[in-house]
Amino acid sequence: MEDKAINTQAEDLFSAMGNIISGQRNVMEDVLVAVIAQGHVLLEGPPGVGKTTIVNTLASLVNCSFRRIQFTPDLMPSDVIGNNVFNFQTSRFVLKKGPVFTHFLLADEINRTPPKTQAALLEAMEERQVTLDGETIALEEPFIVVATENPIEHEGTYPLPEAQLDRFMMKVLVSYPEASEEKQMLERLQNGKAPVLNELRPVLEQKDLIALSRKTDEITVEESVMEYILSIVRATRNDHNLFLGGSPRASLALLRCGKALAALNGRTFVTPDDIKRVCFPVLRHRIILKPEAEIEGLTQDDVIQLILNGVEVPR
Question: Assign residue 46 a region: left if phi > 0, alpha if psi is -120 to 50, beta otherwise?
């Protein structure tokens, strides 16, 4: 598999995921871009649109371990990262690893747990390591956190702090499927062909996914495209509609995601259109609207579009 072109491997993944998930191609593409760029993803959408299924399917197709944490108000940090447990037989403390020790971690409804437990993921997400009782333990590559949250229900939730939001490479909005896609789901169920995740066969191996990430280092980025990225991010910091703009981490994320998207499309160079395409999922959770902009009915995506309209596109 390692000699396949990166876009061929991506199409293999898309095809296999399409056998489980009806529609949501843009969502699957965004998630795959983030995974290849070694970044974490925040999925936001109403219940029942397949957020969990997308992550579980992708982990199965690349033959990686998958763990799920259902975040609740009483969840403790030790429930996420683990702790040292005393073994009476050996009279020693033994490390009991938490679910964070996996390749794909699904943090389901992450905004339902208090900030103290949310913060337990900060080191793991940024440093790819966990510190327990002064001992630092590296996490196995790849390590991808995919968190979900429901945008409708706010009772009993704890909004994610900006420091943690900034550690997600992308925030992907998952909407309802089209009528034709939903009908396809009904027909599959009616005809007894409903997909079964346990029967999925991997189309890539763990080492192939790591190799895909390495290949993005070979993607060429022209100086004009680098300046384009800088102009967009710096414009968010000076926009009159925004209280907070993108950080330098946003610039790095745009570059990495642009390279991953170019590779998925079979190109060896990044175009301005690649940067435009990834701007929305990369920036929408990193900018904060001013109250007056919200009163006017503007959204983060509206402001990003206005900024893109105002920044000169390199030829």
Answer: beta
**What's the angle, vertex CA 282, arms to CA 281 and CA 287, rounded to 5?**
100
Separation between Cα atoms, residue 260 and residue 282, nearest integer Å: 13
Tokens in use for 247? 């950080």
Those residues whose C-beta lies under 8 Å from the C-beta of residue 46, and which sit 6 or more positions away, are 150, 151, 152, 176
Sign of the CA dihedral running 236, 238, 241, 242: positive
User: Model confidence over 3-44: pLDDT tens digits?
Assistant: 456 677 777 887 788 778 877 888 988 999 999 999 999 999
* 10-residue stretch averages of pLDDT, the chain, 315 residues long: 61 79 84 92 89 86 90 90 82 84 92 86 88 84 91 75 89 91 85 72 85 87 96 96 93 96 89 96 95 94 96 90
Q: 172-202: per-residue pLDDT in tens?
A: 999 888 898 888 888 888 887 766 667 778 8
β-bridge partners, 173:
44
**Distance from C-alpha of 218 to C-alpha of 263, rounded to nearest angstrom:** 9
SS3 222: coil
Angle CA 288–292–297, to nearest 5: 85
In order of their start, the domains of the chain are 6-209 (3.40.50.300), 219-310 (1.10.8.80)
Q: Token pair 């070694």 is at which residue?
A: 38
The reported pTM is 0.89
